[in-house]
Write a structure and sequence with these properties.
mainly alpha; Four Helix Bundle (Hemerythrin (Met), subunit A); two-stranded antiparallel sheet; 6 helices; 69% helix; globular
Amino acid sequence: MPDPETWSLGRVKGVSDLLMPVGHALLQARRELNALRDETSTRECRLCLGGAATVGFHIAHIAGSLDRLFTYARGDALSPVQVEYLLREEALGLEQSRDDLFATAIDRIDLCLDAVKDIPDHLLLESRVVGRDQLPSTVIGLLFHAAEHTTMHIGQIRTTLKVSRGLLLVSRDLICEEDSEAMGAD
């Protein structure tokens, strides 16, 4: 039987009850990234299927988007380094090794979990702005979006891996069938 999901394991020590869903989602994402790291190759991270984003992009984007969303939640603007990372996420997904991609994302999740523990409830409804367009949000809105956005990308990683592995199996079966037919024709 698989391990229960983190939301069903009780409170996350140090996380406010109001932010418990954020803590649970980040812990679950961390757990899933650790498992995916062990079963995913660098080649699979770089594989591009029909124009869909690579697994490497999704992993790099998790790290980058968490960094940006938590920056906005603090009320800060993005630094030039963060903007550069945003512009390079696709390239990073192709250039970095599996280990580097996963380590960066897991480290960012750990930093975000620590940050969630330090956010007092009375700040959660404070207004925040996002991006060059200064889109309106709140601290809690940004934190919940960070959690659900991370979860969405974990799902995209799992789906992309499932499709790519399925295509590999189908192509192997087709090659085996062609070889069998060729041998039977001799």
